[in-house]
Write a structure and sequence with these properties.
Helix content is 57%, strand content 3%. It has 436 residues and is mainly alpha-helical. Helix 4 crosses helix 5, helix 5 packs across helix 6 and helix 6 runs antiparallel to helix 7.
Length: 436
């Protein structure tokens, strides 16, 4: 906002100022309540009864009241508006990857072959080196088949799932809040849904058809089911979560690293907390391997340079070229040339003010990747989470599910700096533990 006179201030500048003041005010209000409660000013139950949240939930039930439902649908409508308004012209023109995904989907929808003439590939290689999400390509092909070929339909597929991510995030935050404290969590979920609805990075993500566009929905759905499975210790939900996590392997290239790493950490903490049995783990592994079998076959053929498999019904192709070096940092780049430190710095900037790196389609000078108040609130949340984690270890409360900030995950540092390769980084991760 620096350098803007009052007369030249934009709507977003006024928004940032007002919401920042409100954020500080709300933080001071709850801090004051905590201080008064600790000094014996009023009992804990009285503090809970006087919460403003009571207006949004049914009495003695963790469900939205009539007012809460109205707010829910208003937030959902706002989110849908921001994702569909002038969808074909904002941003104007097609990104080269959008055009590539659209052409591949068009070819598969109406001719049953990809651009190379091979029928229904397990992993469409698009440019020859990949770069296109199989899941998104086939969903777009289905949309073309149902609604015809147009830019609106092309972009509408991702925008549709972007809108579905809003109620999904409500459920995700609600589940996390409920498992943490056992208190009413619907208002917290509603607030999380509102913040995602107006988040600049998610609006940008859902307004064009790029291969990472489905990840917030598909990965969020997998996390939600996994959290419910851990809380209920349900074998069926564990298997379903494993299948959904495997489906993410078809969503974006970097997911092939992030998803297995996430699952390994989850299994470690679930087993340590005795929340997941050996039998359940075996069934989950079996489901994961079953869903990923075609993808593993594709990678096996490419790594071993075996002949392609072309049948009338499906095909397993080989890459025509390799662009690994343009995506991942080499060992020498990471440790000897200082690119790892540079990536860490950019990562911090992405989470705060944005990075002006020449990619005009992901950054506009004067506009942050997030809102002004986002990073300070995130930092406060990170500190509070650490304090709760330490307190939980001391009290050793069994079977609690924790939301853990992804700021501690090093995986994004391995990628060459681009905002779109760090989409998973903006999502909350989850850690179950017997002592946390």
């Amino acid at each position: 906002m620096g350098g803007h006179s009052v007369s030249s201030m934009r709507i977003i500048d006024y928004y940032n100022i007002v919401v920042s003041i409100l954020t500080v005010g709300i933080a001071l209000f709850f801090l004051g309540k905590k201080v008064v409660r600790q000094k014996g000013g009023y009992p804990e139950q009285a503090a809970e009864d006087c919460r403003p949240a009571r207006f949004f939930v049914q009495k003695e039930k963790d469900r939205l009241s009539a007012l809460g439902l109205v707010c829910f649908f208003l937030v959902f409508a706002l989110g849908c508006f921001l994702r569909f308004y002038h969808l074909t012209t904002l941003p104007d023109g097609l990104n080269q990857d959008e055009a590539s995904i659209g052409y591949e989907a068009f070819s598969l929808a109406f001719y049953g072959v990809d651009r190379y003439g091979n029928p229904f590939p397990v992993y469409p290689i698009t440019w020859g080196s990949g770069g296109g999400s199989p899941l998104l390509i086939y969903l777009t092909a289905l949309s073309f088949k149902l609604f015809g070929v147009s830019i609106f339909v092309l972009r509408g597929t991702v925008a549709f799932f972007g809108c579905l991510t809003l109620p999904l995030f409500y459920l995700l935050v609600k589940e996390a809040k409920s498992s943490l404290s056992g208190l009413q969590s619907s208002p917290t979920g509603l607030l999380g849904m509102l913040l995602l609805a107006i988040a600049p990075w998610h609006i940008l993500l859902t307004r064009w058809t790029l291969d990472y566009g489905l990840i917030p929905f598909t990965f969020g759905l997998a996390i939600l089911v996994l959290m419910k499975a851990a809380r209920k210790k349900s074998t069926g939900l564990y298997v379903l979560a494993s299948a959904l996590a495997a489906l993410n392997m078809y969503s974006y290239g970097s997911a092939n690293i992030v998803i297995p790493a996430f699952l390994l950490l989850s299994v470690f903490f679930l087993m340590r907390g005795k929340i997941l049995s050996i039998r359940q783990l075996f069934l989950c592994m079996l489901m994961f391997l079953l869903v990923c079998a075609p993808l593993f076959l594709f990678y096996f053929i490419n790594v071993c340079k075996l002949p392609e498999i072309i049948t009338p019904f499906f095909s397993v192709e080989r890459f025509r070229s390799d662009h690994t070096a343009s995506v991942f940092l080499s060992f020498s780049d990471l440790f000897l040339r200082g690119k790892g430190i540079k990536n860490s710095k950019e990562l911090l900037l992405y989470l705060s003010v944005g990075v002006e790196n020449g990619e005009y389609y992901t950054y506009m000078p004067g506009y942050w990747t997030f809102y002004v108040f986002t990073f300070p609130v995130t930092l406060i949340g990170f500190v509070v989470s650490l304090k709760r984690m330490r307190k939980g270890r001391r009290e050793r409360r069994p079977g609690k599910s924790r939301m853990r900030l992804p700021i501690r995950d090093p995986v994004p540092i391995l990628f060459r700096g681009r905002l779109q390769r760090r989409r998973l980084y903006f999502l909350p991760s989850w850690r179950p533990s017997s002592s946390v």
